[in-house]
Amino acid sequence: xxxxxxxxxKTRTRRDTAEESDTEEMHSNCPSTxxxxxxxxxxxxxxxxxxxxxxxxxxxxxPAELYPKHFTLDDIQVPWRDRVFLACPGSPRKCPDxxxxxxxxDCIVIAIDGACRNNGRYGARASVGVYHGYNNGWNExxxxxxxxxxxxxxxxLVACERALIDAQTIQNLWEEGAENGEDRGGKLSMVxxxxxxxxxxxxxxxxxxxxxxxxxINAKGLPVTNRExxxxxxxxxxxxxxxxxxxxxxxxxxxxxxxxxQLAKSALFDD
Length: 271
What we know:
Layout: H1 22-26, H2 63-66, H3 73-76, E1 77-80, E2 83-87, E3 103-117, E4 125-131, E5 140-143, H4 152-179, E6 190-195, H5 198-213, H6 227-242, E7 246-251, H7 258-270
Parallel strand pairs: 3-6, 6-7
Antiparallel strand pairs: 1-2, 2-3, 3-4, 4-5
């Protein structure tokens, strides 16, 4: 699918190739029961429920509400082949061979980041990073076009847009695969956008409803900065939700977002 400012480039990032072993494949194919813990004792299988449109606060991904205490941040995401999936909250222990929990292969994690050299100063140059998984051809490491505002915040928002456009394409491809009887056919149930940007995550899960209620005017009585990007992201989210794909935003520490960070920074280094 063509998309704005598309210039895709596959970039290898830090992942141990052992994570792609056949052993891990055997332990990473769990039907999705995510978010079912403690909500319905009458059934052992409850698929992720898509939030209603405009339930903005419900789009926040909070592992503390979903996973047992013994799960670390690294346990929650499961690298498998060239993608990253969510771990099953009901997994009691890791596989002794691959050292990973069972995952939900219909729930993907896409990490995003933005970088900007000379941010806020003359000559600023910004870039985006989108990480789908180890050596994945959808990984992106691109400069923002000159006509875009060259700021770190814009770069993070553009990265979010691109990740969601990717998710739309993935959903379409998986559905087509299911119709054609392909192995990867199926339904994408959830996409989690992982970011170390409080601006992006809180913007999409807290501030958006206030901005819309106030006519896109902020608390200082001024137009919301970058409102066109937030509007575009919301449209992409709602489009996925209409297809019963739940979209969540996950705020993580910077050190837990190194793959996307590396992709964003490498575009500046190559410039």
